[in-house]
Amino acid sequence: MGVSREELTDPCIDQHDETGGHAMEPARLGVGLTTATARTILGSGPLPGRAEQVAQQLGEAIRLGLILDGERLPPEAQLSEQLGIATVTLREALAVLREQGLIVTRRGRAGGTFVRSPQVELPDSPPVRLLDFSTHEIRELGDHRAAISGMAAQLAAQRALPDEIANLYRQVERLRAATTVSHRRRADTQFTIEVAAAAQSSRLAREELALRAEVGDLLWLERSDEDHAASVRSRAELVEAIGRSDARRSRVLAEQLVAADTRRLLATRLELDDHDFEQVRQP
Amino acid sequence: MKGRSPTRREVLKQITGQFEQIFTSLEPLAVAFTDLASSNDKSRPERLQSLRDVIHDVLQIHDGLVAGAGAVAAPDTMPDRHWLEWWWTRSSGAPEALRVNLDPAAPDFFDYTSADWYLTPMRTSARHVAGPYVDYACTNEYALTVAVPVTIDERFAGVAAADVLVSSLERQLLPALRTLSRPVVLLNSGGRVIASSSPEFASGMRVSLPKSQTRRPIDWHLLPASGIG
């Protein structure tokens, strides 16, 4: 297909063209699957089993607040049917979640399996989960979020209709009115997803939701009311740019929102010294 | 022998005709919901079952085009303040009931009363096709919602509605659009692209439209791509 043979063959491998008899059809003597290819296929780790996948997804739903703290999970038979998995797979997944402390099972008449949301940490306790992230990972996360949110804002400016812009203003007002950390976090998550919806992109909306599931709780750690007022202001400014159909400005503003989050996360992470780490890991 | 190629007006009529058929299918659904809303504790279970049967009929009649259908109640029309009965088709197998949180205090409360497909039929007492929009609250698909208002004793009682995925619609639509001599773009009344046979335009894009005077339930436009700025 217009690609020369030299480009196709690996120079590191000895060629036996004359004796091999494959003059018409050059053999591709590769290394099989390169490490880079295998990593791309597998993501960052080995392919998790079905139960681990289910556990991870349920865990995300709990972290995101889609399944509420204290909520009783439906009976195993019903839940496994709803998720389209075998009951034994569900049981394995629940065991993983139980180990992570995301669910508890109580016996007796008022018993069952209950969700224990990790967000009920005391506001002044050290942000334990942030210790799982290196500053490098926080930077990577910021890049990923900036790509998604920036593009969503740009497309929203190009595509949103007046109703959708009015809705974005309503979301900003909801955020302004929110007083508790968990309400603010939820209002902000909603705002972010509505921007992606205004961009007419289900994929970007899904991606925003997944990113929030991963780190949403960290983004709203220890915020003062002044911080909150500032984030409401900057989101209102973003909606205004979207309303003006100013795609470039919208993108820049959305990227700046993410950059501010990333800076704050990095600062908080750097403040956590080894001492905190020891205390958390060996109580 | 090949007949003359159709005109844009004819193709648009064919497209809106498909939606008129969905409107027609929603009538028995609206009636079944009216019956349920006027039921008492004793007759309610039976009438709920009848409503489900009608919903499943709608899904079956428009298989491949309608992805979900059901009824939602205006607040306090049913014993529960917020109420809906909604089913969607899975790629394989029987329809599945949609589960959403209808507790206003919950963070994931599904507030259908603020959705365009609920508000517009309520305000105008007329049929409406909402979208396309990202249905992130339910299926997370890019969809249109076809809705008819339900009135009981001259009071708005809710809507009977059906979801059409833009991808399914396009699959049915594109052959018809291609019969036209020039690439065309199908737009909703707000200037949003629903489907297009031109690579310059894709669903979800926004173009400026001259202000439309009409207020028809399906106020769509099929325009030559070359004439759109």
Q: Can you characterise this structure?
A:
The complex is a heterodimer of chains A (283) and B (229). By secondary structure, chain A is mainly α. In chain A, 64% of the residues lie in helices and 3% in strands. Chain A has helices spanning 5-8, 17-20, 35-42, 50-64, 76-83, 87-99, 135-159, 162-177, 181-198, 202-219, 225-243, 247-271, 274-281; strands spanning 103-106, 112-115. A two-stranded antiparallel sheet of chain A has the order 1-2. In chain A, strand 1 and strand 2 form a beta hairpin. The radius of gyration of chain A is 24 Å and the shape is globular. The termini of chain A are far apart. Chain B is built from four helices and nine strands, in the order H-H-E-E-E-H-E-E-E-H-E-E-E. Chain B has helices at 8-37, 44-61, 116-124, 166-178; strands at residues 66-73, 84-88, 96-97, 128-134, 142-152, 155-165, 184-187, 193-196, 221-224. In chain B, the strands form two sheets. In chain B, strands 3-2-1-6-5-4 form a six-stranded antiparallel β-sheet, with helices on both faces. Chain B has a three-stranded antiparallel β-sheet with strand order 8-7-9. In chain B, strand 4 and strand 5 (142-152) form a beta hairpin. The mean pLDDT of chain B is 91. Classes of the chains: A mainly alpha (283), B alpha+beta (229). The interface between A and B is medium-sized, with 23 and 20 residues.
